[in-house]
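Entry 14. Structure prediction run on the chain below.
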Amino acid sequence: MPAAQISGILRRRLILDLGIGLGSGFAMANLFWYGFHLPRTNARDAFYSKLEAERADNKQ
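Output returned:
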């Protein structure tokens, strides 16, 4: 009784691994960008806008 052919298993596994890796990498990048980076950037910009407005009021 011959063993089953295994030639297509490596290709299917490779495609699955690449799909999972790229998909989870994309999801984590979006989580970082929209969950951490943009809120911190907006908070920083708001802080400096407020500081600039205060300095402009103090000059007058």
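The longest helix spans residues 9-59.
Filed with the rest of this week's runs.
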